[in-house]
């Protein structure tokens, strides 16, 4: 039985190893340019680099690099996951991103079989991640008070094969509460005024075991008001977190060693040469100064000269702008000594891979307030000592 | 027998010792042999197995008979009392203490010295001893301390609450047997023995589970030298559906942490394993051609069974098509990735952990330069906890690091004009310019 490939659970309605009509495909151009398409014969996707008819995607393996119709551009056809969906979904609201989704899932003890409430549904970013984690035996009840957003989310859940395990409802939970009682293990509230829904949320928890709640609020004032309401309702172990993910960039860094006396001398000589040629022949035509070929390979001290160098194999030259009206006199070139040349050649440049956070990255979107609800029904203590 | 009074406002029901068939509900209750992470008043934690025959010693906080907790829910505060262990208010509750403060209370005139406490050291020791025996309730000890404190009345409400909390950590006997889960095990080991789990913090573990798209029914390859924490986390997120394929060192795989999850025997085992040394057939597996001098039939049979299991697992791995590769290993990461990526299906994630970003760097550069991966990212989780009860402020101590994660998706490359143009774009363009100049 284990030899068979288990069906995709709680994910998107994906059928097989290759892309088929009706599959949702994540179209990946770059990390910041991710979108999706439902494969429909006759339709096409287009970006700056070309067009990509859906028909050409059918039968391709998941993860294939896919050329545009002309072959001048390409995208990757990726398998839909809640994480990629979060990057590509149509934003109808501010959405939850993966760092928050990860930490909330863990702190609410989500795993297959968990029954959970989410309010509001918003753009359904977290809903997909919840469904993936609690499938196949769990159930998500998700509430949205904006009718248009509710209808769109409901349609998406159905399209993604989640209708059986996600119940979407158009409901203002702050004013009308929940119909569920003694049913769920966890509650997630992403509402402007979560404190108005807390008393109602408390009733939805299974009565005989501990329940977990998370309130997601962008403002510190909301956190404080929520905390007071949680305390008043008897929630315990109230904790608040801020989570970020710090990305790193990789760069190749060149590490130069300090110059030796010979190297310094050589550079001074070249500097004098350049200055002299500028002073004595201030014309617009170009005078070429012959620099020993050895200097070419000695990057980066020789780098300024390389700029004027055409081919690596040819002796390097320095281009100097020359004014035509100037009186031409013979340039007396200072001599570059052989040992100075070899010193430049030996000058060492180490290369290493450097890691640094980018100058700008995503900050956190909200504060996460967690709390625990203790069982409201308790086992009767048996006479253990008897 | 009298009925013990549980926490406020709760009702009583029969002991829930009949499995309901729902793993989530069944796991919520303590049973004979359950593992528990006992959270002590000091906030330290202790991993113990609750067998009804044993008495669990908790040092200065006393001890309790595990039998008394059978059928009771996890994650609930219980107080160790003279007559036994009983449900109690949560330790964070300050119920029973009067912390109202006179207006204008401040530490303006506070002089902090030992004499502020009128009880002598001997008095306090005596109270402690009585409390240990269970004759005096810990709440009374704390009340005695604060009633005899000259500075008590000058304290602000916040200062009073803080004072009580500090004393509760010392004198209270309220413990919480936490249900072991990937989260609570990670938190426990991160605090008590971080090296065992490669100093992996709970937010980092969480990020790995989502980055790798772990779900029931998935088939994952895991290289887990983090004490089996990754394996346990995967098993927990799969609840018997799918496969966790461990590549392990030596002959034995690490499943310790899976054992602590208290999974009912009704949950099928999703674990499969293969030792690194058995990726290819070893000489000792060729028993058809080996001349084995062994008269013990049973022993020989066990040997054959073991070899057959190894062969079956190797064949399973070689069949490929896995849904993710998740790694926390001291081995050369690039070698691990190169060896195992071929077994992944297309578009599937590779997620690797390290305490050191430097050990991930080489593979990251490889991911970036190779055409077989996209969306390569190296990142670090950053987590700050705030105090919110009684004023919001960041916690004094925060964790410095929870480790680094490298992730990428496996893709299938193909030749397009675009690759030619793009790779030629930089060099080729420059080449034309060069030509023009040299032609002059």
List keywords for this structure.
heterodimer, A: 386 residues, alpha/beta, Vcp-like ATPase, Chain A, domain 2, Rossmann fold, eight-stranded mixed beta sheet, four-stranded antiparallel beta sheet, elongated, disordered N terminus, B: 440 residues, five-stranded antiparallel beta sheet, 20% strand, disordered C terminus
Mean pLDDT of chain B: 83
Number of helices of chain A: 12
Task: Report the β-strand fraction of chain B as a percent range.
Answer: 15-25%
Reported by name, the CATH topology of the largest domain in chain B is: Rossmann fold
Radius of gyration of chain A (CA) equals: 33 Å
- Bulk shape of chain B: elongated
Averaged pLDDT of chain A? 83
Overall tally of domains of chain B: 3
For the largest beta-sheet of chain B, the strand count, sense and barrel status come to: 8 strands, mixed
Strand/helix succession of chain B: EHEEEEEEHHHEHHEHEHEHEHEHEEEH
- The helix tally of chain B amounts to 12
CATH fold label of the domain at 85-246 and 366-373 in chain A = Rossmann fold
* Share in helix of chain A: 25-40%
> What is the highest CATH level, the class of the domain at 85-246 and 366-373 in chain A?
Alpha Beta
Strand numbers in spatial order across the main sheet of chain B: 11-10-9-12-13-16-14-15
Word description of this protein:
The complex is a heterodimer of chains A (386) and B (440). Chain A has 12 helices and 17 strands. In chain A, strands 9-8-7-10-11-16-12-15 form an 8-stranded mixed beta sheet, sandwiched between helices. A 4-stranded antiparallel beta sheet of chain A has the order 2-1-6-5, with helices on one face. Chain A has a two-stranded antiparallel sheet with strand order 3-4. In chain A, helix 2 (82-88) packs antiparallel against helix 4 and helix 9 packs across helix 12 (338-346). In chain A, 28% of the residues lie in helices and 27% in strands. Among the domains of chain A are: 18-80, Vcp-like ATPase, Chain A, domain 2; 85-246 and 366-373, Rossmann fold (3-Layer(aba) Sandwich), CATH 3.40.50. Chain B has 440 residues and is an alpha/beta fold. Chain B is 32% helix and 20% strand. Chain B is elongated, with a radius of gyration of 30 Å. The interface between A and B is large, with 99 and 110 residues. Strand 17 of chain A pairs parallel with strand 1 (11-13) of chain B. Chain A: GO terms for molecular function: tRNA (adenine(58)-N1)-methyltransferase activity.
């Amino acid at each position: 039985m284990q030899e068979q490939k288990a069906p995709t659970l709680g994910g998107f309605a994906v059928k097989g190893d290759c892309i088929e009509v009706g599959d949702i495909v994540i179209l990946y151009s770059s990390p910041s340019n991710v979108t999706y398409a439902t494969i429909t014969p006759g339709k096409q996707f287009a970006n700056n680099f070309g067009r990509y008819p859906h028909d050409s995607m059918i039968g391709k393996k998941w993860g294939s690099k896919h050329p545009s119709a002309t072959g001048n551009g390409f995208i990757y056809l990726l398998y839909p996951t809640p994480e990629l969906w979060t990057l590509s979904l149509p934003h109808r609201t501010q959405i939850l991103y993966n760092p928050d989704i990860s930490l909330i899932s863990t702190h609410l003890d989500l795993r297959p079989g968990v029954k959970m409430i989410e309010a509001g549904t918003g753009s359904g970013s977290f809903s997909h991640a919840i469904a993936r984690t609690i499938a196949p035996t769990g159930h998500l009840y998700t509430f949205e008070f904006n009718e248009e957003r509710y209808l769109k989310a409901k349609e998406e859940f159905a399209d993604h094969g989640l209708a059986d395990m996600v119940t979407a409802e158009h409901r203002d939970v702050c004013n009308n509460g929940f119909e569920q009682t003694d049913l769920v293990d966890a509650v997630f509230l992403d509402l402007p005024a979560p404190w108005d829904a807390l008393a109602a949320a408390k009733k939805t928890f299974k009565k005989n075991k501990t329940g977990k709640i998370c309130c997601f609020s962008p403002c510190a004032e909301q956190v404080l008001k929520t905390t007071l309401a949680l305390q008043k309702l008897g929630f315990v172990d109230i904790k608040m977190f801020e989570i970020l993910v710090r990305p790193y960039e990789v760069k190749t860094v060149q590490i130069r060693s300090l110059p030796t006396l010979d190297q310094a001398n050589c550079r001074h000589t070249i500097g004098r040469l350049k200055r002299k040629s500028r002073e004595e022949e201030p014309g617009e035509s170009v005078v070429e100064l012959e620099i020993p070929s050895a200097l070419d390979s000695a990057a980066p001290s020789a780098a300024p000269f390389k700029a004027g160098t055409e081919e690596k194999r040819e002796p390097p030259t320095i281009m100097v702008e020359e004014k035509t009206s100037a009186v031409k006199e013979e340039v007396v070139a200072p001599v570059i000594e052989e040992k100075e040349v070899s010193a430049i050649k030996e000058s060492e440049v180490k290369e290493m891979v450097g890691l640094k956070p980018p100058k700008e990255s995503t900050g956190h979107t909200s504060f996460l307030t967690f709390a625990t609800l203790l069982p409201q029904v308790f086992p009767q203590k048996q006479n253990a000592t008897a | 027998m009298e009925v013990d009074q549980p926490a406020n406002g709760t009702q009583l029901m029969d002991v829930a010792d009949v499995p309901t068939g729902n793993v989530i509900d069944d796991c919520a209750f303590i049973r004979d042999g359950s593992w528990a992470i006992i959270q002590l008043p000091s906030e330290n934690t202790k991993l113990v197995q609750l067998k009804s025959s044993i008495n669990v010693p908790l040092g200065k906080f006393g001890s309790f008979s595990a039998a008394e907790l059978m059928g009771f829910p996890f994650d609930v505060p219980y107080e160790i009392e003279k007559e036994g262990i009983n449900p109690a208010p949560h330790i964070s509750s300050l119920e029973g203490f009067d912390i109202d403060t006179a207006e204008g209370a401040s530490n303006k005139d506070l002089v902090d010295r030992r004499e502020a406490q009128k009880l002598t050291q001997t008095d306090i020791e005596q109270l402690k001893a009585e409390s240990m025996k269970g004759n005096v309730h810990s709440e009374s000890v704390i009340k005695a301390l604060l009633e005899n404190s000259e500075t008590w009345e000058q304290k602000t409400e916040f200062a009073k609450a803080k004072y009580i909390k500090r004393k509760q950590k010392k004198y209270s006997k309220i413990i919480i047997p936490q249900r072991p889960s990937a989260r609570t095990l990670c938190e426990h080991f991160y605090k008590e023995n971080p090296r065992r789990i490669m100093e992996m913090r709970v937010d980092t573990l969480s990020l790995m589970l989502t980055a790798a798209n772990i779900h029931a029914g998935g088939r994952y390859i895991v290289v887990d030298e983090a004490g089996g924490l990754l394996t346990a986390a995967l098993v927990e997120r799969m609840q018997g559906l799918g496969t966790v394929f461990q590549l392990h060192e030596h002959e034995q795989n690490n499943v310790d942490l899976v054992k602590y999850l208290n999974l009912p025997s009704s949950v099928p085992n999703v674990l499969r394993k293969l030792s690194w040394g058995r990726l290819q057939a070893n000489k000792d597996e060729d028993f058809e051609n080996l001349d084995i001098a062994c008269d013990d039939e049973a022993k020989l049979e066990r040997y054959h069974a073991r070899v057959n299991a190894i062969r079956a697992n190797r064949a399973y791995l070689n069949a490929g098509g896995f849904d993710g590769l998740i790694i926390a290993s001291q081995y050369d990461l690039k070698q691990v990735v190169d060896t195992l990526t071929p077994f992944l299906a297309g578009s599937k994630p590779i997620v690797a952990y390290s305490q050191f970003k430097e050990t991930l760097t080489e593979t990251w550069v490889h991911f970036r330069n190779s055409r077989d991966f996209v969306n390569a990212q190296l990142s670090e989780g950053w987590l700050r906890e705030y105090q919110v009860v009684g004023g919001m402020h960041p916690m004094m101590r925060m964790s410095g690091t929870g480790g680094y994660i490298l992730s990428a998706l496996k893709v299938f490359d193909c030749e397009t004009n675009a690759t030619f143009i793009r790779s030629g774009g930089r060099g080729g363009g420059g080449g034309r310019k060069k030509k023009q100049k040299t032609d002059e």
